[in-house]
Amino acid sequence: MNHTDTDTAAVTAVRALLDGLTDAWNRGDGAAYGARFTDDATYVTYIGTVYRGGDEIGAAHQALFDSFLKGTRLASEVDGIRFYGPDVAVVITRGDTYKGTLGKLTKVQTYTVIRQANGEWRVAAFQNTKHKSLMEAFNFTVQPGARPQLPR
To answer: Which residues contact 126 (CB under 8 A, 6 or more apart)?
Structure first.
């Protein structure tokens, strides 16, 4: 059953989890990044790579931070948080990585986050999708019925 969340502490905690991910990324700290995920998390990149578990996610990101993602920053805006009971939420964000000046946010992320037995929120699943606005506009022109009804 879908719940509309009225627990501002849970919303604050989920947002703090996302802020922690951004902070770890911006510091180039793969271990801290991976620590925000559950031991059995799944992480799907926009190119289709699948990582499993916080340790693997952290180690892979450290390798990336030490090479072609060195010095990048992570930007993210929350589109919505929906709670499915007191301990599970799905979060949709728009985000991107950048160096220098932030441009348009070109990716859409889906996070499934859970509250663990110790009360801490962690990411259990993550999916990153490259937003292709030109293809989307074409699709909506050819098939207007495919346009989402809810405002973005």
So the answer is: 37, 41, 42, 43, 44, 109, 110, 111, 112
CA distances in angstroms from 137 to 27, 100, 132, 141, 148, listed in the order given: 36, 29, 9, 6, 12
pTM of the model: 0.87
pLDDT in tens, 89-137: 999 999 999 999 999 999 999 999 999 999 999 999 999 998 777 776 7
Query: What does the block give as tokens for 6?
Result: 């009225």
Residue with tokens 């902070």: 23
- Return the CATH fold of 8-146: Nuclear Transport Factor 2; Chain: A, (3.10.450)
